[in-house]
Write a structure and sequence with these properties.
Helix content of chain C: 40-55%
Number of strands of chain C: 2
Largest interface: A-C, 61 and 41 residues
Number of helices of chain B: 13
Largest sheet of chain C: 2 strands, antiparallel
Order of helices and strands of chain B: EHEEEEEEEEEHEEHEEEEHHHHHHHHHH
Strand order of the largest sheet of chain C: 1-2
Number of helices of chain C: 3
Distance between the termini of chain C: 37 Å
Largest sheet of chain B: 9 strands, mixed
Order of helices and strands of chain C: HHHEE
Number of strands of chain B: 16
Oligomer: heterotrimer
Helix content of chain B: 25-40%
Structural class of chain C: mainly alpha
């Protein structure tokens, strides 16, 4: 049998026969690793059109189950293809829907209503979320490419924990049509793969203005630049990202990695603290989330709760079928958007995001990239961290790109205690190709 | 004293819905897509330009000042006919207008919901997402008559603009009596219903702000389940929709226009001209025709345009039309000829106007009587109605240039 | 005070809190509100883009049956309560 973990470029150049053999093998792997719960729906007889692709279950694929790993959509089948997926379907082999935290709500990747997703190296630990299923499936070799989503770290966290690559594109680059909303002004559909080449291949195909997503921008990226090295990039290093509460071993590993290439390193600071940024996120996101969840009342689609009167049905459906974290966020968001509280919380949080954006824009006049660790901790054991606030603080390093609409990638740069550690590279808005270029240079430089 | 304010909802005529390209056919055709049924992951397309244009024109026609931009907000509530659990509604398109003495607070755009039949327990989503324009008034009406006049004038404005084709008005009625609190009765869908609501709610002041619904079948109002004080729509700007630039189209205020035209021509005719869409045609006609001529021609024009399904707004009198008008005025042709000539213009046919002076009626009658021997015999035997057939034959030969009554008189003379 | 607000928000959001859950959720949300704390207000504003309105043309969506098939209870073209 062919080596499973060969470079994506080679998989893309495979002959059809070899590809078919590979896909069959990967389907067997999916069975073998069933207990890791990386898939919530597995395709029985996929049409082999290219490398295997896993699609996170909060992205709509026509005719395939679409639950976002929440019981409230149990039994629901996608009625149309997400734009990003439609651009890939004839060149990839759809293997199935991968598991995630329900509606993308979580940093552990382990809270799907349909089964607990486990870390590929240690099944007693979380894989990182919310695109946990993708992280695991890629890491185990079950799929070669994946589509995930990232709102405040959901593609980068599992990439970091599972030792694979996940990239959050610039906001407005990839259409969100078909992505089940978490926070509309922050959500992105993300390419995930085991190497940077796979990311570039995916991104080149899925980006583009879409009349079905008014937040997409008409911009042409030059992918011909992709494998070309950058000369003496200026790397900004945010001091806050390398000190407590970030695990010292993780900081040191990333600090050692940055100078492995010929780069200029500049220490930078922003006046807004990282945890204020996270707090602003957990104020803005719940408001947008509560809004996007208004449609789930069991009435028009999805599972319907008991009751003969509409309001009753809505209450039964939502109370019964929404998991605790979803309820927390919806109630929080509903409260924050009421007349009484919106001024105290919502509008202030928006101003915090604006302030950070302003400061980071200034920094990018002086540097080409920002680099930091992706996650502040190693994958934790399932019941080790349960306090919501503690879990929210896991987003502390991944918040700047969403708040500012910037592209950011997480690549594996080594391990601590045997667990993979990811390094995050952030670029200027629409500097996605340059981010890929630098990421590939590090990938090569570390190997 | 009773104070009544209205929030009137009307459908601007468009091909497609506000945020998707589903057809707005309001019959029972099924018109649905992922966007207007708020399927998971679906997002709005750019707002319908015709809906925006009509909303701006209406605001201008009502004398409003037009804003520079609009933003769509999400208005959240749970109801079976609202697929997304929120309605997209815009910030004002225009503010500060006036109609029939009633101040217009604002005009804005919003999405319509589906059709919910609570008694059958069924919802149809074909109407969900169809554009609506809402006109909000100040509580400047004080009686059923005030309301009737306002709604009638509003209807005229909508006809004048060619704004709608379903002639459906739904209104939320806000009433307060003396120093009492405001009672709001939502979604009243007939004028009769609005009148009934006013009757029911204007008897005594309300102690608290209350929201009610109107049951058309029972002709009664009842208090809504959710208390007014508890209702918070939690408006947020829709993150999926960037802002939209708008600008005035130059549409004149209807009342100003009406004043101008009513100074030139009797009020009733002025109203007919404006409401039927003949104002552009009128502008051409008023410099070349007397008011009496215009009045006479209006009914001909309207009838024939309607018969041919031509939008009166598109009718621009051309030189050929004015030639017919001139010839009729100078009696060179008959009214019959003028009308049929006008129809020929509309049908794109060549004008064949023969002046009546050039026809020798006696000779033509002789020819016809010679040719139509059977008819003549029938007439002699007592079948007098055959005269019409003979008149028709003469008219054919004379190209309709002679008054049929005259032809009938001459024929009868000869036949006796 | 926070507890009242949470109860009201849950009602607006059509979420009924089961007994034990009610207490626990209230505590968690109180903790979250405390953690968020007093947010500062900054003066900068985010400039939003403009969008061009769309031409008024209609197309019948081809997948209407798929959408209807997802109605939990159905009668022909109608969704049933």
């Amino acid at each position: 049998m062919q080596d499973l973990m060969i470079p994506t470029k080679e998989i893309l150049e495979m002959e059809k026969d070899d590809l078919e053999e590979r896909i069959r093998y990967q389907l067997d792997l999916a069975e073998k690793y069933r207990d890791f719960h990386s898939f919530v729906y597995l395709e029985e007889d996929p049409a082999v059109l290219g490398p295997s692709l896993g699609v996170k279950d909060n992205i709509s694929v026509k005719g395939k189950p679409l639950t976002s790993c929440s019981r409230i959509l149990e039994g629901y089948i996608g009625t149309y293809d997400a734009t990003a997926y439609s651009k890939l379907k004839s060149d990839t082999t759809f293997l199935g829907k991968t598991s995630c935290d329900p509606f993308g709500c979580g940093s552990s990747g382990a809270t799907s209503d349909f089964g607990r997703t486990k870390h590929p190296l240690d099944p007693s630990r979380v894989p990182g979320g919310s695109s946990g299923g993708n992280g695991v499936a890629l890491s185990l070799g079950i799929v070669d490419l994946a589509l995930g989503t990232d709102t405040f770290g959901s593609a980068r966290a599992p990439a970091s924990f599972c030792g694979v690559v996940g990239m959050r594109p610039s906001y407005g680059l990839v259409s969100r049509y078909g992505l089940l909303d978490l926070s509309m002004s922050l959500d992105t559909i993300t390419p995930m793969a085991r190497d940077v080449y796979g990311i570039a291949w995916l991104l080149e195909r899925i980006y583009g203005k879409d009349e079905h997503d008014l937040t997409t921008v008409d911009i042409k990226l030059d992918f011909s630049q992709f494998p070309v090295d950058l000369k003496y990039p200026r790397i900004g290093v945010l001091t806050d990202c390398f000190r407590s509460p970030v695990d010292e071993r993780i900081s040191r590993l990333v600090e050692k990695t940055i100078p492995k290439l010929d780069v200029d390193i500049v220490e930078v600071e922003i006046s807004t603290s990282l945890d204020l940024l996270v707090k602003a996120y957990y104020t803005i996101m719940p408001v947008e989330f509560a809004s996007s969840m208004q449609r789930y009342s069991g009435f028009l689609y999805g599972k319907r709760g008991k009751g003969t009167h509409f309001q009753e049905i809505a209450i039964e459906t939502r109370s019964d079928l929404l998991s605790p974290e979803l309820k927390r966020r919806i109630i929080l968001g509903t409260a924050i958007s009421t007349r009484e509280l919106r001024d105290k919380y919502y509008s202030r949080a928006l101003s915090i995001f604006s302030k950070v954006r302003e400061e980071v824009d200034k920094i990018f006049k002086d540097v080409d990239f920002l680099i930091s660790p992706t996650m502040p901790v190693l994958p934790w054991r399932f019941d080790e961290i349960v306090d919501p606030v503690e879990i929210y603080m896991m987003d502390i390093l991944t918040g700047i790109p969403p708040a500012c609409g910037l592209p950011a990638i997480s690549i594996p740069v080594g391990s601590v205690e045997g667990f993979p550690v990811g390094m995050q590279i952030i670029g200027p808005r629409f500097g996605d190709v340059d981010v890929l270029r630098l990421a590939r240079m590090y990938e090569e430089g570390i190997a | 004293m009773i104070r009544i304010g209205l929030e009137v909802h009307v459908h601007p005529m468009t091909e497609s819905k506000l945020f998707c390209s589903c057809p707005t056919s309001l019959e029972s055709d099924v018109s649905m897509c992922p966007i207007c049924t708020a399927q998971p992951g679906a997002k709005p397309m750019a707002p319908n330009s015709e809906a925006i244009k009509k909303a701006v024109m209406l605001a201008e026609a009502l004398g409003c000042k037009i804003e520079e931009k609009i933003v769509f907000l999400r208005k959240h509530y749970f109801y079976p006919d609202l697929p997304a659990g929120f309605q997209r509604t815009s910030t004002p398109v225009g503010t500060g207008g006036k109609l029939a003495g009633v101040r217009i607070r604002e005009v804005h755009l919003e999405e319509d919901a589906g059709r919910y039949d609570p008694r059958k327990g069924l919802v149809n989503y074909s109407r969900a997402g169809v554009p609506l324009v809402e006109i909000v008034t100040e509580p400047d009406m004080h009686s059923k008559d005030d309301v009737r006049v306002f709604l009638s004038r509003l209807s005229d404005v909508l006809d004048f603009l060619g704004f709608w084709n379903d002639k459906v008005m739904r209104a939320d009625v806000n009433i307060s009596v003396d120093h009492g609190e405001r009672v709001e009765v939502k979604e009243v869908s007939t004028i009769k219903g609005i009148m009934k609501v006013i009757e029911l709610e204007s008897s005594q002041p309300s102690k608290e702000r209350v929201t009610k619904h109107f049951d058309e079948a029972r002709q009664a109002t009842k208090i809504a389940r959710e208390k007014e004080t508890e209702m918070d729509y939690r408006f947020i700007p829709d993150p999926d929709i960037p802002k939209i630039k708008i600008s005035p189209t130059g549409q004149e205020s209807y009342e100003e226009l009406f004043k101008k035209v009513a100074a030139e021509i009797p009020e009733e005719i002025a109203r007919t001209i404006l409401v039927s869409g003949l104002y552009p045609a009128y502008r051409e006609m008023k410099n070349r025709m007397e008011p009496e001529e215009i009045i006479e021609w209006i009914s001909i024009i309207l009838g024939d345009l309607k018969y041919r399904n031509i939008d009166p707004r598109k009718f621009i009198p051309n030189p050929e039309f004015f030639m017919i008008v001139d010839k009729l005025r100078s009696r060179e042709i008959t009214r019959y000829q003028a009308v049929s000539g006008f129809r020929d213009i509309l049908d794109g046919k060549q004008l064949k106007l023969r002046s009546k002076k050039s026809v020798d009626l006696d000779k033509v009658i002789t020819d016809v009587l010679n040719e139509e021997g059977d008819a003549v015999k029938k007439y002699a035997r007592g079948k007098k109605t055959v005269i019409h057939y003979l008149v028709g034959s003469v008219m054919k030969k004379t190209g309709g240039s002679i008054d049929p009554k005259k032809i009938e008189r001459e024929l009868k003379k000869r036949l006796e | 005070m926070v507890k009242e607000m949470i109860k009201r928000a849950a009602k607006i959001a059509r979420i009924k809190l089961a007994d034990g859950e009610s207490e626990r959720l209230a505590v968690e949300l109180e903790t979250i509100f405390d953690w968020i704390g007093d947010l500062p207000r900054f003066e900068t504003k985010l400039e939003k883009e403009y969008v061009e309105p769309r031409k008024d043309e209609s197309t019948q969506y081809a997948g209407v049956e798929e959408i209807k098939s997802m109605f939990p209870k159905r009668r022909g073209d109608y969704c049933r309560i």
